[in-house]
């Protein structure tokens, strides 16, 4: 049985010989700490070094969402930080002495006029053959040639993600209020790309999961008003999932940090049935989620990174608390984001030993 087959059976509450393992990546700061605590300097892939099998996912998508892409370039580089233009056209500062989110200095969209310009310059949806060219073919080859047993994901949309990436949370909020027709046009262009992508991908390979990158919530709940989500995004989610269901694709992998609980009933009503990374600090506890939403909601993540930092006893106790949901199925536990630098090498190895044990390895 391959990990792809295990994942599909697990998420459909069917028996498996062992659970697939999903793994989060460590920060560069974390790896630097681990090297001081025993990780050999020549090791570049920690999980391969430790012999931990992990679920491989191939995301098959064309050039999304910008075409032509924003030009990435370095504006300033010194011993302390680097300032650059990133792939979303933002000016960002990344510090070199520690790992963190970038400092966003400037965004390409500050008002409706900017959004119109960016759509005209970078959101063309007329030449689909160009969008689904070399990069698309490369990702198809990853599945068909390089990793035939990989789980295949196709894009279900990243509507708020694109708006927020272009404008930042504050300006995005103003645009939703002041320029709803313009935002709706942006979302329609994204929707056009999603639907064309689904048609093209499913014509080439068997798709297993519809994936979403939204980051639409924070610790205190949604960053976009639920009423606006219901009006501007949910109908597009529904249409894409109707097409997916017609192609025999029933599972979703909806990625967002923060607390999604207020949105989940509406999401589930249109067919979204799997969420990640289930950030426990924001209230997305797998035990409580299973009790509140039942087996129709599949869960990926949900192991509190703060507990891994506390040590072996805390890790073991948390796995015991999660055991009923793990055994029931529809849940692939892993650290609920990236592996932070407060996690020691010893504690992380114990976490990996435990996840193998509770996954039946």
Helical run tally: 15
Calculate Rg over CA atoms: 21 Å
Average pLDDT over all residues: 96
What's the helix-strand series?
A: HHHEEEEEHHHEHHEEEHHEHEHEHHEH
- Note the overall shape: globular
CATH architecture descriptor text of the domain at 58-69 and 109-276: Alpha-Beta Barrel
Give the biggest sheet: 7 strands, parallel
Give the strand tally.
13
Low-confidence stretches: none
Rounded to the nearest angstrom, the distance between the terminal CA atoms is 13 Å
Strand content: 15-25%
Write down the CATH class of the domain at 58-69 and 109-276. Alpha Beta
Largest beta sheet: strand ordering: 1-6-7-10-11-12-13
**Helix/strand/pairing category:** alpha/beta
Helical content class: 40-55%
CATH topology of the domain at 58-69 and 109-276: TIM Barrel
Using brief descriptors, characterize the structure shown.
alpha/beta; seven-stranded parallel β-sheet; globular; TIM Barrel; 13 strands
